[in-house]
Specification:
This protein has about 140 residues and is α+β, with helices and mostly antiparallel strands. It has five helices and six strands, in the order ααβααβββββα. A hairpin with a 5-residue loop joins strand 2 and strand 3. The structure holds zinc ion (2 copies). One zinc ion binds next to helix 5.
């Protein structure tokens, strides 16, 4: 299993406390995490600006990606697209427990863009219930 240090080294990033914290939280979880979920029981460990900048740096370096949900809240997940995930992939959002997962497999998106439009990203979020929530009810 890859470590936080290996990820930072591979991207020529210094090992700061905040980078380390965010990456280790994401490595521990299969699900995507919001800013508050990342901070968990330590909401004041890093100031807001540091935390936000760190997320931005990690995103710009292609280490993590953001997932914008239908209510406009944002969650973050590690990029693992060199393995099982395609670069453009869908996400699943559980309406009950709010868990967000990256889905493997290519997102099929067939819309035609008007002339001269350029596509940067496609967000697809599938809403539903995760297996845990289905089996609970
Ligand atoms: Zn659920
Ligand atoms: Zn994802």
């Amino acid at each position: 299993m890859i470590t936080v240090e290996e990820i930072l080294n591979a991207h020529d990033l210094r090992n700061t406390g905040c980078r380390k914290f965010i990456l280790s939280e994401l490595l521990k979880n299969d699900a995507a995490l919001s800013e508050n979920e990342l901070k968990g029981p330590y909401p004041d460990l890093f100031d807001r600006v540091t935390f936000y900048r760190t997320l931005k740096t990690l995103e710009e370096k292609g280490i993590i990606h953001r997932i914008v949900l239908n209510d406009n809240s944002v969650k973050y997940a590690l990029n693992r697209h060199h393995q099982e995930y395609e670069e453009m992939h869908s996400h699943f959002h559980c309406e009950k427990c709010d868990e967000v997962l990256c889905l493997s497999g290519k997102t099929k998106f067939e819309a035609e863009l008007p002339k001269d439009f350029i596509k940067h990203e496609v967000y697809v979020v599938i809403e539903g219930f995760c297996a845990d929530c289905v089996h609970q009810s």
